[in-house]
């Protein structure tokens, strides 16, 4: 009687169980080494991304791509000037177009301004940068550190937490003539 029961259990249809096991696997769709991705818009180069390794998880329900050994992105503005971003690690969330950059994050613009931090989020849709981590920003007019950042890609509109450092402020005289 015991032998018959064991044979019955082992012959049970396990296709549903096998499907669940396959579905739960978090295996990447593919892995590529020494990649170079060129992003264009109307035949104009917008950015060039290079990385030692790219791991593609776009086969999962929450699609993403990972750059576990770091990445470098060269962005081009409307005047084709280069702005460079490097990080030790990156992850691109496909559906939200949000990029999470970690470890020795450095963004250097064509004018020499430099932003450094340990983590930086880039919203590719709205071209917005933000972090809750401490960061340092330097250019011709500013040299400061703060605890959080929320800014557009040109750094013309930004909000920070507590500032530490030097900010040069110029004052213009009122040009309205008195009558």
Any overview of this molecule?
With 179 residues, the protein is mainly β. The chain has a domain at 25-133: Sandwich (lipopolysaccharide transport protein A fold), CATH 2.60.450. The chain has 2 helices and 14 strands; from the N terminus they run H-H-E-E-E-E-E-E-E-E-E-E-E-E-E-E. The chain has a 6-stranded antiparallel β-barrel with strand order 2-3-6-7-5-4. The chain is elongated. Residues 1-9 have low confidence and may be disordered.
Sum up the structure in keywords.
single chain, 179 residues, mainly beta, lipopolysaccharide transport protein A fold, six-stranded antiparallel beta barrel, 14 strands, disordered N terminus
Question: How do the helices and strands line up, and which of them pair or pack?
Answer:
Layout (H helix, E strand, L loop, with lengths): L1 H9 L4 H10 L5 E12 L2 E13 L7 E4 L3 E6 L5 E6 L1 E5 L4 E11 L5 E10 L4 E4 L3 E4 L3 E5 L2 E4 L5 E3 L2 E5 L12
Antiparallel strand pairs: 1-2, 2-3, 2-4, 3-6, 4-5, 5-7, 6-7, 7-8, 8-9, 8-10, 9-12, 10-11, 11-14, 12-13
Describe this structure in a few short sentences.
By secondary structure, the chain is mainly beta. Helices cover 11% and strands 51% of the residues. The chain has a six-stranded antiparallel beta barrel with strand order 2-3-6-7-5-4.
Sheet with the most strands: spatial strand order: 2-3-6-7-5-4
Helix content: 10-25%
Instruction: Give the class from helix and strand content and strand pairing.
Output: mainly beta
* CATH 2nd-level architecture of the domain at 25-133: Sandwich
The global form is: elongated
Mean pLDDT: 82
What amount of the residues lies in strands?
Answer: over 45%
What is the fold named in CATH at topology level of the domain at 25-133? lipopolysaccharide transport protein A fold
Order of helices and strands: HHEEEEEEEEEEEEEE
Instruction: Tell me the radius of gyration.
Output: 25 Å
The termini sit apart by 112 Å
SS field, number of helical segments = 2
- The level-1 CATH class of the domain at 25-133: Mainly Beta
Biggest sheet layout: 6 strands, antiparallel, barrel
CATH superfamily heading of the domain at 25-133: Lipopolysaccharide (LPS) transport protein A like domain
Instruction: Tell me how many strands there are.
Output: 14
- Uncertain residue ranges: 1-9
